[in-house]
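Feature request disguised as a bug report, sorry. It would help if multi-protein outputs had a clear separator. Right now it looks like this:
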Amino acid sequence: MSLSVSAYAEKPVQYYFKTLDVRNGLSQNTVFQILQDRMGFMWFGTREGLNRYDGLSFRVYKKENSALGRNFITALYEDEQGNIWVGTDDGLYIYNPELDSFRKFDIFSDKNSCIMNYITQIESDEEHNIWIASEEQGLFCFNPTSGELRQCLDTSGGPNINRFWIRGDMCWVNLYTDNLYYTTKDFKQPLQVFKDADGVETFKGDIVNWELEASHNCVYIASTRGLIEINFTSGKTRCLLNAYARTLQFKSDDELWVGTENGLYIYHPSTGQFTHLTVPDQDDTYALSDNAIYSLCCDREKGMWIGSYFGGVNYHPHQRTYFEKIYPRGELSYMGRRVREICESNDGTLWIGTEDKGLFNLDPRNGKIVPFKHPSIYRNVHGLCLDGNKLWVGSFSGGLNCIDLITKRVKHYTMGDGKNQLPSDNVFSVCRTTTGDIWIGTNFGLVKYNRDTDDFTHISQLKNNFIYNILEDSDGNLWFATYTKGVFCYDIRKRSWRNYLSNEQDSTSLSSNKVISIFEDSRKRLWFATLGGGFCCYNPAADNFTCYDASQGFPGNTIYKIVEDRQGNLWLTSNYGLACFNPDTGAKHVYTTANGLLSNQFNFQSGYCDKDGNIYLGTLSGLIAFNPTTFVESSFVPPVVITDFWLFNRRLASDSLKSPLKRSITYSDRIELESDQNFFSLQVAALSYQAPEMNKLEYILEDFDREWNVISKNSIITYSNLPYGSYRLRVKGSNSDGIWNPQERVLNIRINPPFYLSTWAYVVYVALGVCVLFMIVSYLRMRTLRKHKRAMEKFEREKERELYTAKIDFLPM
């Protein structure tokens, strides 16, 4: 947040920024150009490479890892085909997102010249021709249909083109430190110097850095002389801001952002007022990171991206959930961070008790915060209670104080051995009942203040109990939350006590004996927040409890405070964010630092809702204030994309060696893997930048997974040892408000079987089988033939033997 507001504005305006720099993965902190492509990716051109950002991670393109010939990026433009034209300090390159590759633009013009110098600007006209300005060369026009490059203006030997734009049939050109000219788009007419209605050459000797079309036939010009408006209807010009202006961007019709050498100016045309944001003298997480603003971009969610010279990128999300942040910074450096107690005073101001710097008074009407300093008020405040014109202040190890808000006098009470003195200097809770009684809870029991004798009465039923919170319900009964003994209830009519304890065998009992806060809602329901046991609702008819915890979607099992808004929703603070819960419908929504909280960790007893519905909650980093009625649910449906593909933990692109990708994984609808490539990972993203950490992603691999899986924070899907076969990966995503994109990202995956199980292998197996069978049959046949032959030969021999024997027998002896 930057509160350096110029004299042009009547009230300070708070703007909160998120910073992305080299610590987050940006290749270099000087950001000259910003572009959002049609897919939804953000692109940042730096001195050291081109960066693609998906909300969680950067992908850096450099000459060392791609065909991008230079790392110094000077201009970016996306054409009608979705290609990104990348201007560098030494020529022009075209990025094809489907192939995830670059090629150098090396076409020669009609004057036999090739674009090869520092590219100052790339734009297009209504006919989708691409216009390129190159230092020491001039202005070129490329026709994508015919592939012809025309050199429209040759500036070699003269001043370079610093800025140009096409307006209808006219081309406007600013020559560096020379003047602003115009001519017909075909450049058949000579350049004419622009003069206003009074004949003044407004831009003589000036450097025009940016121009922006506006309503009422006006154009805003950012130049070294400031922000200048040209009204083409009247022909008049006027200087709106005297500052070195570099870039312009509309956030809305009545909000023009002006990037200058001295921070960011936000101009409101309807009022003529400016808000000036600069880098504070002290480190501020939510402020601009640099005063030299070089680029601006408004994304599809109306978030603003700011590129600077030294500070990387700042992002200002569209304020759909506005949390005002009050914390030590600049002139508020004296404020405490560990906000605990919040109590409204009679004059509408708030008393804020902190655990590190004592007591403060906040005026919500003007944001003024004043510390209350008194030697008796210890810095560690643990209990606040308004009692007419008096304020009771309990502290940790500092006793109890009573402040007269009119005279500012302080009465101090400390622990003593007497029966009518405080049992401890650790005062955790002070409660004033409707009858005017003051009850004080300490870590060694409960006492009641006696106004007549200005001393205390010890309550024996709670002797030595750690009293954390005290509440009087709408029936006048008193409830006491203890740190280890559950909840005590004192029935004011029956004058009887009852103790509610946790029982692990009974799900309708109190969820934990460590109860730290009690709240009664507008429907007279009592709620109990516990340390580690979630929270409970008391059911008086059944005299039992309904319990809630993290297993039901709440951010944690420790609930510090419960506050109700005007719509009947309960706001619950925890260690892991803020939950909005509707007890009637069961609907819940969790907010974290990604949505604008100061910290995900809140503090004990720290919460209050004023009569206007404004909610104040204390965290370990300061105070947040918001009104839930101003919250607007985002209707933006983020596209779900696959950003990267890894094989055995090695990232592969379509042009990588032995890559299975035929084109970029972002545009692939099918991949085919070999049997030994069945260990792979895919990184996915839902391209919404409002609170990207809160976007939700789920996936299922059909024919393998039985149910949808939630993707972890690193947005990586991994499968290992996947059996061969055909699969269908489905990925779905939502924005930070839980609005799901009905269009899933689908990727068909085919894992081929190993060769010995492939179709060809089976063909070989069959062929071999046939051969073996043929050989076996042939062998058996041959063996049979041989056997038959031997039998025949044997038969023949036997026949011959018989014949011989017969002959012998026939002959006479």
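(second protein starts here, but nothing in the output says so)
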Amino acid sequence: MRWRSLLAAILIVVGIAAIGLVVLGPVGGATPASQYLTATAARTNVVQSAAATGNIARHATYGLAFGREATVTSGASSSGSTSSSSSAASSGNGTAWLVTTVAVQPGDQVTKGQLLASADDSASRLQLAVTQANLAVAEARLAADQAGATTAEDTAARKSIARANVQLAAARQNWTLSTQQHQLTVSRAQAAVTTATRQLASDQAAKKDAATIATDTAALTTAQQTFETAQLDSSAASNQASASISTAGLQITTAEDARAANSTPAAAAQIDADRMAVSRAATSASSAQTAVAGARLVAPGDGIVVAVNIAAGVNAPSGDAIRIETGPMEVTASFAESDLPTLALNQPATVTVTAVNQDLTGKVSQILPVATSSGTSSVVTYTIVVSLDAAPPDVKSGMSAKVSVATATAANVIALPNNAMVGSKWSNKDLVLDANGQVQLRPVTVRLTTSTLAEIKRGLSEGDQVVTGTATARQNTTTTGGGGIGAFPVGGGGAGGGRNFRPGGGTQP
């Protein structure tokens, strides 16, 4: 409800200092032992709010996998669902990643940059060596075609040769490292075969049951296959890298010979083609370098580990290897479309988490501009995200919460409960009971109203008592306000004197 300027309401005010229940003798048409139920006009903050229910989640959930960048799989603003990126293969570019270390488990708090897990990067290092050698070849070809008698041509060729030599040196270093790692992998696989063979022999000697012998046999078969695969992979990858490095070395020699001979440069079109080849080779080398870095999983930010789907000694499965929740706690709630015009960024909010019996504070951080509807329902809602100022440890992602956003506030004003309001059809006047027990009229102006309070702009003072209803003790009945109060005597003073005002206007004899 918007602020209402000069909204008149009719209140029945008792000019007595007592607070709460006022007991009066017979007044006018009131019966003996009648009691007036009252509310006190007091200073307070009147806050208009929009309310909804929602769920708590971290700002973002990251899926981490070997060989690719961390991806946001879900967050408070995405309804907590996992995106399709989480189903991408964790082995980047089709590479099988043998996990070597896992340093975390679900529930662990982590900091940005912390190492979470690592994998064998020998295969990716060999691929990097190949791409670096190919880049050296492309640079050398460009140098050979650029070589000429002029100073500019000679300088261009010399720079290309220098870049080619740098790439060749890097390729040789990565080839050496990857060869060593492959040898280690083969050694481990061979040791696994030895262990499986001994286990099978031991169980056979002990005459274990058939199920145990079958398990041992299957383990030995798997170990042998892993050993053979490791040997083949090591040999094939090493041979490919070695051949690429040799080709690069020969091409650099050719470029150096062309430069020394001051040969005539190639046509401009050929040089342009060489430059394109260098660009493509550089892109491939960069991707391979990223893949090598992908053998280490590090935390993208401070947060908490929510899932670990890998184990040391086995290849990483498809999908995310590790998932981490990062950022502040947020609440995502669906507000009615009628609330949208009153909602704005940075509005204060109160969040009640029933599961832990706590009220938390926050601010509106996001208002999604697209409406949503549930199923076949015609109810239209808009998604609002509230960022919590602070959340205690016992508040967890997925908990339900009630959200109340303050959309308008009148601070330190005189206010009354809404059940003291009678209506606005009594010509902008209120019924007042003076010190002599006579009901009189007083104009009152209402401004901001909520579901529970009404701001009194003019007409009442702090401490005034306002009648909210009547009660007759002998009949054990009570009549209260809330849209209108029962008949009250006006004027007169004696029993049966005066006339009764009734809600909605008019009088009654």
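Even a blank line would do. Unrelated, but nice: The two ends are 38 Å apart (CA to CA).
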